[in-house]
């Protein structure tokens, strides 16, 4: 797929593979990126209340990419939605590009956090939800996308254990399950969250309608997790 640098038309889901093909040099993290593509698209296309014009609006929804070690799909979606120029994509990972192998919130328009180190995003999301509640801002939703392997990190379990009893109903977590975790969860990933008082749904991570239904499911008084199952990383 060829995309002109000066192209200004609206972009859609079908453009994303071409956008990702423009970013080379980090192929070892290709599975980490492609595993997130559909969930990211449904969030930005149909769920998140944030646009390039509103990215500094205090009332915006917050999206935190914890799975930042494979950011190519994230950058592709941000380009499709107008947060970053398409012409930035071919320079991905170069010394003078804003689009690094890990996102930098100072350099990437629309990025809420710098990420990539496993286990940081969910605790930050908990703090963000708490901060918004303390400010009396009850409308913005906080979304964080993590990988199943991040659940090997203890910091996430502390965050899970805190968020349920705290009743952080504006907190939403998407777990991309590509079978890359080292430690099994008794009863599955969703059961771990449910045991801490979360609302939980498990869906096919490539089915856009199933993802949308899960993302918008009501969960009064509780944080919500969507476990999005995709093909195994090493399949």
Describe what you observe in this structure.
By secondary structure, the protein is α/β, with parallel strands linked by helices. It has a single domain, classed as Rossmann fold (3-Layer(aba) Sandwich), CATH 3.40.50.970. It contains eight helices and five strands. Strands 1-2-3-5-4 form a five-stranded parallel sheet, with helices on both faces. Strand 2, helix 6 and strand 3 form a beta-alpha-beta unit. Helix 3 packs parallel to helix 4 and helix 5 packs parallel to helix 6. The two termini are 26 Å apart.
Short description:
By secondary structure, the chain is α/β, with parallel strands linked by helices.
CATH topology: Rossmann fold
Using only CA atoms, what is the Rg? 17 Å
Main-sheet strand order equals 1-2-3-5-4
Please give the count of helices.
8
Can you give the mean pLDDT? 91
Helix and strand composition category: alpha/beta
CATH superfamily: Thiamin diphosphate (ThDP)-binding fold, Pyr/PP domains
Return the CATH class: Alpha Beta
Q: What's the β-strand tally?
A: 5
- How would you characterize the largest beta sheet? 5 strands, parallel
Question: What portion of residues is helical?
Answer: 25-40%
Task: Report the order of strands and helices.
Answer: HHHEHHEHEHEHE
Number of domains: 1
Distance between the first and last residues' Cα: 26 Å
Please identify, by name, the CATH architecture: 3-Layer(aba) Sandwich
The percent range for strand residues is 5-15%
Basic shape? globular
Contiguous low-pLDDT stretches (5 residues minimum) are 1-8
Domain Transketolase N-terminal: 29-217
Cofactor: thiamine diphosphate
GO molecular function: magnesium ion binding
InterPro entries: THDP-binding (IPR029061), Transketolase_N (IPR005474)
């Amino acid at each position: 797929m060829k995309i002109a640098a000066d192209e200004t038309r609206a972009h859609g889901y079908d453009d994303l593979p071409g956008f990702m093909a423009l970013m080379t040099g980090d192929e070892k993290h290709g599975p980490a990126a492609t595993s997130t593509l559909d969930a990211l698209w449904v969030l930005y296309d149909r769920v998140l209340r944030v646009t390039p014009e509103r990215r500094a609006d205090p009332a915006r929804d917050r999206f935190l990419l914890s799975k930042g070690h494979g950011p190519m799909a994230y950058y592709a979606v941000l380009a499709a939605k107008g947060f970053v120029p398409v012409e930035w994509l071919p320079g991905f990972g170069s010394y003078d590009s804003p689009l690094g192998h890990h996102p930098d919130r100072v350099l990437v328009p629309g990025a809420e956090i710098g990420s990539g180190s496993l286990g940081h995003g969910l605790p930050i999301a908990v703090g963000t939800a708490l901060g918004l509640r303390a400010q009396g801002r009850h409308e913005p939703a906080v979304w964080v996308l993590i990988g199943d392997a991040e659940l090997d990190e203890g910091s996430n379990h502390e965050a899970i254990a805190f968020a349920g009893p705290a009743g952080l109903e504006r907190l939403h977590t998407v777990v991309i399950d590509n079978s890359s975790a080292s430690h099994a969860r008794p009863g599955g990933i969703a059961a771990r969250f449910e045991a801490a008082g979360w609302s939980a749904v498990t869906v096919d991570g490539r089915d856009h309608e199933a993802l949308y239904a899960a993302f918008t499911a009501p969960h009064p008084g509780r944080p919500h997790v969507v476990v999005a199952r995709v093909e195994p990383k090493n399949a």
